[in-house]
Amino acid sequence: MNSGKRGRKVAGETLNTIKLARSMNILSNNKWKTVLTHSIVWAFVFSLPFILTSSHEGESHENDSERFTYVPLNTITNIFWVGLFYFNAYILTPKFIYKKKYPLYCIFILAIFSAIMLVHGVFFEWLITDRDFNFLNSSYHNLLPLLFSITISTAYKSIIDQSKADELAKEKQQENLKTELSFLRSQISPHFLFNVLNNMVAMVRLNSDELEPTILKLSSIMQYMLYETDEEKVLLKSEVEYLKSYIDLQKQRFGTKLALNVLFDIQEDWHTIEPMLLIPFVENAFKHGTGILKNPKIEIELKAENGKLYFFVRNRFIETETTKDKTSGIGLVNVKRRLELLYYNRHHLTINKTDNWFTASLELTFKS
Questions:
Q1: How many whole angstroms separate alpha carbon 16 and alpha carbon 89?
Q2: 190 and 332 in one domain?
Q3: pLDDT, tens digit, 9 for 90 and up, residues 219-274
Q4: Does 76 map to a domain?
Q5: CATH number at residue 192
Q6: Is there a domain that residue 58 lies in?
Q7: How far apart are CA 60 and CA 70, in angstroms?
Q8: Cα separation, 217 vs 221, whole angstroms
């Protein structure tokens, strides 16, 4: 047994290691993809002026020579615009734009632009020897690249942060959904146990010989509830066996006093379903379709075919009957909520009360 536990532990650690390695590999791949994408975009942006000017006709070789004289200077200046793009995106925008400190932001941008122009002037004097550097003229011609860099970088940062915020909100919503489903499921289970134990008390008072098989069936039900309902989904086959055990418990209790018609036609039992999703309908039928009622009758039908589940529960009830206890109806209220959360736009639930008959009909499309 110890070796088996050690084996499971090692297997679990190995699986976790594999998952971690896959996650790191995905992150690494995404990082390189981002770097490659940014490099391609910048290469295109910087080459665009040369592509556009080379398409013009009628330019002399002298103009071409003069234009390419500025290539080293423009390349150096473009590096500053790239730096400004990321500095504005990751430092200035979060610190000033997000906090609405617009005057300070403008001061920083003007200071950075002035510094870039001064450095640009130094390289201009070094690389261009046939003319003098004019600060105002160069600032005017570089104003458009400045505005382009800060506008695009601010938009880029805003879109990235909004995307991350939406992703976190989605993850939080999924976690809240799991928490709510767990809470709803925990409400159903005690309610069901309460009813079954009441049934067993009645059998003890009647000194019934069916008590022992009842305890065995209850044991199998408890095993299902404790070890399988913690999973997000279970096989439909397991859920059906659970329903059958519950119905058998009720048969043992009521015997011939109750007209019970049950039909299970499960042609596709390999589908998965959320656990404890169907039992509240059956539980409700036995709870309100028996007791002081004369000639009680319950009909239960369950079919699974063509990727769909058809569930029908019908029981007689007394119109003037008051709520039996404070927990009455918890199961149906919760199962409605679970269906809304888990099978939104994938189920149709109809509940009717007519002519002293309570009918619940559910059509559900299995998740592929």
A1: 36
A2: yes
A3: 887 777 777 766 778 899 999 988 998 888 778 777 788 899 999 999 998 999 88
A4: yes
A5: 3.30.565.10
A6: no
A7: 16
A8: 6
